[in-house]
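Handoff note, outgoing to incoming analyst
You'll be picking up this chain. Sequence as last confirmed:
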Amino acid sequence: MRTLLTNLAEGEYHKLADHTLEGLQERIEAYVEDLDIEGDVEYSQGVMTIRLGSHGTYVINKQTPNRQIWMSSPVSGPVRYDYIGGQWVYHRDGHSLLGRLKEELHKLTGAELQLQSDN
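Most recent structure output, in case you need it:
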């Protein structure tokens, strides 16, 4: 498997990744609460865990050495995202982190996750 290193300085990487994950945390916490399922969202030290009860668990985390965000999904398994063109993208097929997450959560729960932007 080829590793694609994003050309980001470490400080810029942290700024972009933290912005993405903190924004996701807020929206997904509200989403899980609105679903009225036994679930929760935790975010600490660059690792977000999204528990959706019987629907499974997502883990989304920063991977600083590679300047990536990694997502482990109960639907699609593990995927590594690089920051390309203003968004976190899987380089093998071009799908975005936020697009994939919205799509999968909708399929799992039947409810749409509202995000303001796809980066």
